Predict the structure.
Amino acid sequence: MITLVTDSTAYLTKEEADRLKLRVVPMHYTIAGNSYTEGFADENQNFVDKIAANPDLCATAQASVADFVGMFQAIVHQGGEVLCVVISSRLSGAYSSACIAAKAVDAEKVRVVDSRTTAGGLALLLKKAAKLIRQGYPLEDIVAQVKKQREKTGIAFSVEDMESLRKSGRLSIVRQSVGAILNIRPILCLEKDGGALVCAGTARGRNAQMQALADRVPEDAVEVIIESLGSAYIAPALAERIRARLPHAAISRATLGPVLAIHIGLDVIGVAWSVE
């Protein structure tokens, strides 16, 4: 029996995680000296107001080696194998924690894959992995296929306020002039070959922002996740644009959580996709 494990930045709901039969190792964050554990997407209550009230007093912490060891041991001791797919190693140290934990528990029965993505992109890879597990593929074959699927999975997003990116130390990828003050918004992506954050361009105004994100989705995408925080009308409007262009694609929506919000801000719209 293979058990799928991930971290909380996949932002799955509890129902989605149960349906995929996967387990989630939580990330951690602090706000104004108070420590919290990131949960499922539908369990992270009131974090927006707390972050907004304390923008300079927020920090995040990756899932620790001990967090992963506890999860892996519980599975392996029951005779199972583990496939752990986590947030891009260029964005978090969770991958390193999971790799160390895998060696400590049982390197033969635990495999860790760097998703090179996060949020909706990670969720789509997990769906692929869960499908392969249901179909009965052996662990090594699933690892190989998930790595191939990384090349067919993409993510792009845009923010209204550059301050959180500035604090995260990633502002160098975007011109200093980009920001809501000029009504110019960056279009940001994660590189497929490494999972690093890169700027794919800019858009002036909300309409152009939505169009730029919609245009990032390839014509042969079969599944799309619209992910957002902030302005309520943006996500459904973006979904409609993509649906009009790609009527064949399955489109769903997701809400981002506190760990990513601390780094990229509280007004975010993004899109993730996968092709077969």
